[in-house]
């Protein structure tokens, strides 16, 4: 069966072991060996072999590149679209009725049949490889010494620039296995950025001067357009990396380096934050009603939008929900940290939020449509369209959730198409926090609301989501000006006064009497206005 690796995207900054490559591309060790013989360059000549993600991407892009003419001994696979040198054991010859010579072979990657018309010279070269049991790439002069680049039409570098730090970075990746994929990627971006700054100098030779020079460059250039938050995180990631490296055998001399990544205090000062844009629940309902419903994709996008307001899940968690995680009868969602892409691997049960009846109708309609299409409990709640269309005919494993949040982002983009504000998937959580602020009347209710959003405490909810924008702050202070508000302690004291729970002559009684009198005077003044 033919295959294509276009959908496989190795991460540029990562270092992959042979086993990682086997898993990423779902191939055999022989295929990796063929790739190395065909031009894939390991990070060095040591064993076991390691490969840069950037080099894997370069190698496959080069193989897919259309060439006006194949090199000697090279075949183009029409199955996986790769340009390659097949194994000599699969090569055989045949002659047409017109006397033309052809070579047949098998693609080492996807197993498809290969065919190439040969000239006399190429036929002799391939025949010689078969007779001497040598690889076909040995006859290609272009894989030998490259000619000097003379003139203006110089060739681009064929390989990624080798780094002496790749094995160290691979060791750090093993150590960083406790982090999420996004966190590892962020750390690696910072490490590779610093590596480029010191011009691929070995990390074992890094000095405090190098770290200080990086810091001064960031301070003077403003990080090349990066935000203060990004710069702070990169400095933190570099400090953490060199703290780890300084504890490894042979690198103890690096112990003073981490402190030199500390940024000036002004980089830690919070700037005036922009108010987050999010719709009210009524506005979200209007947006939902305006979304198209004609095609299967339209209905999936509409259901994704509705589900975001129904359960308040983050985009990564939302797209990895399986149908069995949803309990329609109990109106609950199992937020499974082991099976879903969740923040910090949290597992808890989400109750559908109140006041979301309109969203429920749309989501339940989608769930029932999925059942009619043949989706099973273990299938993704929001599968890709190809799997969704063929769900009834398949006899394979359950349909896996999509690997990215692209479908969620697209759903919100479509929803915001004719709106003045483009809402993000995370805006649904802000809408729900606003709703909770309006309807939660007790501390216990606020606590339950926060837990339903996946927050460890209500403090997290109101610190990061319950922001008061400038407009709302102005309204609140206008109320302060109109009437001096009472604190909760003062309200409790006045209530006790009216219920005759205070003893006359005590300080509490006298204070309550003053408060009650002031409140009565205020009401009379308001009535006279």
TrEMBL record:
Organism name: Allosediminivita pacifica
Superkingdom, natural source: Bacteria
InterPro entries: CB (IPR044068), DNA_brk_join_enz (IPR011010), Integrase-like_cat_sf (IPR013762), Integrase_catalytic (IPR002104), Integrase_recombinase_N (IPR010998), Integrase_SAM-like_N (IPR004107), Tyrosine_recombinase_XerCD (IPR050090)
Keyword Flavoprotein among UniProt keywords: no
MF (Gene Ontology): DNA binding
Domain Core-binding (CB), residue spans: 163-246
Protein name: Site-specific recombinase XerD
Keywords, in A-Z order: DNA integration, DNA recombination, DNA-binding
Single GO BP term: DNA recombination
Domain Tyr recombinase, first and last residues per copy: 274-478
UniProt family annotation: Belongs to the 'phage' integrase family.
Any Pfam family the entry gives: Phage_int_SAM_4
Listed CDD domains: DNA_BRE_C (cd00397)
């Amino acid at each position: 069966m033919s295959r294509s690796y276009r959908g496989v995207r190795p991460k540029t900054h990562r270092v992959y072991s042979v086993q990682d490559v086997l898993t990423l591309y779902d191939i055999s060790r022989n295929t990796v060996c063929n790739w190395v013989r065909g031009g894939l360059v390991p990070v060095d000549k040591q064993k076991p072999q390691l490969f840069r993600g950037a080099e894997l991407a370069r190698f496959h892009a080069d193989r897919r590149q259309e060439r006006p003419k194949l090199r000697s001994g090279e075949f183009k696979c029409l199955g996986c679209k790769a340009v390659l040198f097949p194994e000599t054991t699969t090569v055989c010859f045949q002659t047409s009725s017109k006397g033309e010579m052809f070579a047949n072979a098998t693609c080492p990657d996807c197993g498809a049949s290969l065919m190439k018309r040969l000239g006399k010279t190429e036929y002799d070269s391939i025949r010689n490889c078969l007779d001497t049991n040598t690889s076909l790439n040995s006859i290609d002069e272009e894989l030998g010494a490259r000619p000097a680049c003379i003139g203006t039409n110089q060739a681009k570098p064929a390989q990624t620039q080798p780094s002496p730090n790749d094995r160290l970075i691979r060791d750090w990746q093993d150590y960083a296995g406790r982090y999420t994929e996004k966190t590892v990627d962020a750390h690696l971006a910072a490490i590779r950025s610093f590596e480029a700054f010191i011009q691929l100098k070995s990390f074992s030779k890094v000095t405090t001067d190098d770290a200080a020079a990086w810091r001064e460059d960031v301070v003077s250039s403003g990080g090349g357009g990066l935000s203060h938050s990004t710069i702070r995180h990169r400095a933190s990631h570099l400090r953490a990396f060199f703290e780890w490296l300084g504890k490894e055998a042979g690198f103890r001399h690096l112990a003073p380096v981490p402190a030199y990544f500390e940024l000036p205090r002004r980089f830690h000062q919070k700037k005036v934050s922009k108010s987050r844009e999010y719709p009210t629940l009524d506005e979200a309902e209007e947006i939902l009603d305006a979304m198209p419903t004609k095609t299967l994709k339209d209905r999936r996008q509409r259901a994704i939008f509705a589900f975001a307001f129904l359960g308040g899940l983050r985009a990564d968690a939302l797209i990895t929900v399986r149908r069995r995680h949803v309990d329609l009868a109990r109106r609950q969602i199992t937020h499974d940290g082991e099976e879903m892409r969740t923040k910090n691997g949290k597992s808890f049960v989400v109750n559908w939020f109140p006041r979301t009846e309109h969203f429920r109708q749309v989501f339940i309609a989608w769930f029932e449509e999925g059942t009619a299409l043949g989706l099973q409990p273990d299938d993704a709640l929001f599968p890709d369209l190809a799997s969704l269309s063929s769900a009834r005919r398949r006899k394979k494993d359950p349909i896996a959730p999509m690997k990215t949040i692209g479908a969620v982002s697209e759903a919100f983009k479509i929803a915001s198409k004719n709106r003045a504000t483009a809402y993000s998937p995370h805006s649904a959580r802000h809408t729900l926090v606003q709703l909770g602020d309006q309807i939660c009347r007790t501390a216990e209710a606020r606590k339950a609301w926060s837990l339903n959003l996946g927050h460890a405490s209500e403090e997290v909810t109101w610190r990061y989501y319950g922001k008061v924008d400038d407009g709302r702050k102005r309204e609140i202070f206008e109320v302060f000006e109109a009437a001096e508000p009472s604190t909760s302690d003062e309200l409790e004291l006045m209530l006790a006064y009216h219920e005759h729970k205070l003893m006359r002559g005590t300080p509490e009684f006298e204070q309550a009497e003053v408060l009650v009198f002031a409140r009565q005077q205020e009401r009379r003044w308001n009535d006279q206005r």
